Amino acid sequence: MSSPQHDGQPVPAPPHPAGRHARHTAPHRAGSTDRILFSGDIHCKGRRLCPLIEAAADRVDAGTIVLLGDLLNEHGITADGEVRAFEQLVEWVERQRRVRDVVVLLGNHDLTYWADSDTANHHAFKGTCPGYLERAYPDVHYLLHAVRPQLAYGFTDACGRRVVASHAGVTQGWWDWMKELLHDAGEPVPSPAASAEAVAARINAFAEGRVGGGIRPFGIMVGPERGGWYGDTPSPVWAGMEEIARDPLVGFDQIVAHTPVETVLHRHCGDGTGMDGCADEGRVGRRPGRHAGCRRDGSACLWYCDTHSRYRDGRAIGDDSLLLYDRSAGRAWSVRG
């Protein structure tokens, strides 16, 4: 299998952390509240990756870590191995939460373990999760609920840019589909001026509610890029790299994982019509002084962060780089894991 080829810019390395003094004024919390560190798919490799993520968070003074989903399943892992790996990840998350915020998002590989057994959702998600291990389910199900995961996370930076993070990305088509269901059910519908925090909260509430089947459409709405039917609208845990680039949620920048990349990538994309597509900007570099994060009018910035995935033979696809977003600066940088 050859290395994946993607257009996009490498994200540059960050400057010297500006918030390091925060540790002296808040000794019980690590990092600056404005600095958020994003990690792509873990896939049961927490024993290797968690120390790298923690060291990077300390180095760049991040006050929040966001895990972008697909915590589970890895090529060739046994059920016992998956349970042990997830126990280690959960223990690490809980330790980190004593000193900084940790946000855990759900990916498509996690939903089968999230759903209660003997439910229609559980059986449906098995069909879209080929790595699911039945014997690991009882322990993993309990632990996954214990870390309080969600589907989306949002924030607004000092420049007014609205940024939404999810496992695979929110397309305008999926957002419009959800809004129509909410409207027909008499539920509140977010306005185009809604904050990123409100958009993420609405997505999380939709997954927990009854309208549209709750969590169910997240696991079964798969677009053609990931093996679904042509014309199907991909959900925020299933959107492919090009699907989100062709139809990004209008007015919002997004941080995603899901599609393996060699290093963290950054792209300027179209206005959500599905027609203009993506104005590719190359890969995200590490040159000091450059930054990614300037969204043009009518376009969206996308960051792709799945740099931890491996081929079936165990070879690394990516370089384990992470994405640092500084809300006070309105900028994003690549961070070496």
Detailed description of the structure:
The protein is an alpha/beta fold and 337 residues long. 28% of the residues lie in helices and 18% in strands. It has 10 helices and 12 strands. It has helices at 22-25, 46-60, 79-96, 111-114, 120-126, 137-146, 172-184, 196-208, 216-220, 241-246; strands at residues 9-10, 32-39, 62-67, 101-104, 152-156, 162-166, 253-260, 265-269, 278-279, 300-306, 322-326, 331-335. The strands form 2 sheets. Strands 1, 5, 6, 7, 8, 9 and 10 form a 7-stranded mixed sheet that branches. Strands 4-3-2-11-12 form a 5-stranded mixed sheet, covered by helices on one side. A hairpin with a 4-residue loop joins strand 11 (322-326) and strand 12. Helix 2 (46-60) packs parallel to helix 3 (79-96). The longest helix is centred in the N-terminal third of the chain and has 18 residues, at 79-96. It starts with 8 loop residues before the first strand and ends with a strand.
Nearest-integer average pLDDT: 87
- Roughly how many Å is the radius of gyration? 19 Å
Beta-strand content estimate = 15-25%
The end-to-end span amounts to 24 Å
The level of helicity is: 25-40%
Residue stretches low in confidence (pLDDT < 50, at least 5 long) are: 1-5, 18-27, 272-282, 284-296
**What's the total number of strands?**
12
Main beta-sheet strand count, sense and barrel state: 7 strands, mixed
- Principal-axes geometry comes out as globular
Number of helices: 10
Overall SS class: alpha/beta
In N-to-C order, the SSE pattern is EHEHEHEHHHEEHHHHEEEEEE
